[in-house]
From TrEMBL, chains A, B:
Species name: Chlamydomonas reinhardtii (Chlamydomonas smithii)
Gene Ontology molecular function terms on file: hypoxanthine phosphoribosyltransferase activity
Family annotation (InterPro entries): PRTase-like (IPR029057), PRTase_dom (IPR000836)
Biological process annotations from GO: GMP salvage; hypoxanthine metabolic process; IMP salvage; XMP salvage
Region (Disordered): 201-221
Keywords: Glycosyltransferase, Transferase
Top-rank taxon: Eukaryota
Protein name: Uncharacterized protein
Length: 221, 221
């Protein structure tokens, strides 16, 4: 299925509004999973800014699904590898602490869920390490560690058996998807070599969906 | 001026094709300046992939123009600050070396040039540091340090006095801009709260530009 930029932009707007992403989770930090999450994360920031009045910081992490057998990519055996990660060290002015943040992890698609599962697990480990370090140096009277919360935001969730898992509390209350889709190939606009043809196909798909919906409504009456 | 996603996508395609971005520079690494460069960088990768047959890695750096006087943002006094940077340390599997890379730094706009100037200067310093470290540990017979090359890619270059500068060799042969624009406010699609209205305005602007161009051609004849 071909999907246009404007459709994705609108789907994110509708999700933020319809699913109370800001009101229910109050994100304070966006983490975009590169490269699929770059574009949705930047779009999302606009709609969160409309809610909270400020541009949330976006940090990025680079993750690739990597298969040692390069001839045949197999989602069952593929493993996730980091290509870029957050900097937690204080020295260089770019070090961040996860403490107290409500972190919204953004990707374009929840496919096998391996990448999201890995991102959440790694960030959870990092937070735990930071908590230990904080508590080791915390003096009496200083505030207690504030546990960060992790949430997930995706444009598309593919309906399929997932190879990766997410913590129950994330899935139950902090997992935001713009839409569920069947397990078909999604053609994102940023991969289009010819954006005019891509747009036409996206428009045709939408027209077909509308006609099918109308036919169903008419048939139900 | 309002500009649509598809226009930006097409402008990047045209620039890669018309200005021989791949053929003349052979980029091996994309560095997106966040957050403005996230979307153009991801679009750009598609057109470079069509040239070289593989998805170039995208690393991101976060830069903000920051003014201590928060009431009144002044481009003359604003300074650039890092919010995220590259990781060069080897320990965690995400450390990268700049050595030998042709690095294309991507942002949406060359406005005051302060941000681009800062990015190029910092990466040049980092490369110099890596060169020193490499040469200090290089044993006889091992290959010599390969100097990385830096290039710049922007969607829009605003015609104005620039507050920041770029090295002459970058400006002369490795500075790629999709288009020059007057120093007016550019409304990017990712900032649109209402994408339909935004698209209409972008379409009207384009129609106006086409009409003006046609009138000029007719007048010249």
């Amino acid at each position: 299925m071909h999907i246009s930029y404007n459709e994705i932009h609108q789907a994110i707007a509708d999700c933020v509004e319809g699913k109370d992403v800001y009101e229910s989770f109050k994100p304070t930090l966006i983490i975009a999973i590169g490269s699929g999450g770059f574009i949705p994360a930047r779009m999302l920031r606009t709609f969160l800014k409309a809610k909270c009045g400020k541009s949330l910081p976006i940090q990025t992490i680079g993750l690739v699904l990597y298969d040692d057998n390069l001839d045949k990519y197999d989602p069952d055996t593929a493993v996730v590898r980091k290509t870029q990660w957050l900097n937690y060290s204080h020295g260089e002015g770019t070090g961040i602490s996860l403490q107290g943040h409500n972190i919204l992890i953004v990707d374009e698609v929840d496919d096998t869920r391996k990448t999201l599962s890995y991102a959440v697990a790694e960030l959870t480990k990092d937070a735990e390490k930071q908590r230990h370090e904080y508590e080791a140096r915390r003096k009496e009277g200083e505030p207690e560690w504030q546990q960060p919360k992790l949430g997930v935001f995706v444009v598309h969730n593919k309906i399929k058996d997932k190879k990766g898992s997410l913590p129950a509390d994330v899935l139950e209350s902090r997992y935001f998807k713009c839409m569920d889709v069947p397990d078909n190939w999604i053609v994102y606009p940023w991969d289009a070599l010819d954006i005019e043809t891509h747009q036409q196909r996206a428009d045709e798909r939408r027209a077909g969906e509308r006609a099918a919906k109308k036919a169903k409504v008419d048939g139900d009456q």
